[in-house]
Design brief:
It is a single chain. The protein is mostly beta strands. The protein has one domain: Thrombin, subunit H, CATH 2.40.10. Helix content is 8%, strand content 55%. It has a 6-stranded antiparallel barrel. A two-stranded antiparallel ribbon has the order 2-3. It is globular, with a radius of gyration of 16 Å. The chain starts with a strand and ends with a strand.
Length: 101
C-alpha cells in the first residue's frame, strides 16, 4: 500500500460576533497535511454504507491515527465529509463522500 497522496484535515473556525454591526467576522480554515493511500470505495462497501452506489466516494488510509478534531478533508481541490472512520492498530481508515462548498 502506497501512502503517496497528500490529504488535508481541515478545521473551520468561525469569526467572532461583532455586536456593533450584528455580523460575524470571516471564518478561517486551518489545515494539517498527512500522506495517505487513496482509492475508490468498493461497490460492496458503498451498498453497506449508503444502500446504493454513490458517485464521488473514496477510501483513504493513513498511517497511525489522527486524533485532533476536524470538519472535513481536502484531497487536491475536492472537499470530502467523513461517512465512516475506523481505527485499526497502526492505521486509520476513512470512507469519504465528496461535498460541494
Amino acid at each position: 500500500m502506497r501512502y503517496d497522496t497528500p490529504i488535508f484535515f481541515q478545521k473551520i473556525e468561525h469569526g467572532a460576533y461583532d455586536a456593533a454591526t450584528g455580523n460575524y467576522g470571516p471564518q478561517t480554515i486551518s489545515e494539517t497535511r498527512r500522506m495517505a493511500s487513496v482509492f475508490d470505495t468498493g461497490v460492496d462497501m458503498m451498498r453497506l454504507i449508503y444502500g446504493r452506489i454513490e458517485d464521488g466516494s473514496v477510501t483513504a488510509h493513513i498511517q497511525n491515527h489522527y486524533d485532533r478534531a476536524f470538519d472535513r478533508i481536502r484531497i487536491g481541490e475536492k472537499l470530502y465529509k467523513v461517512e465512516r472512520a475506523r481505527n485499526l492498530r497502526h492505521k486509520q481508515t476513512f470512507v469519504l463522500t465528496e461535498v460541494q462548498e
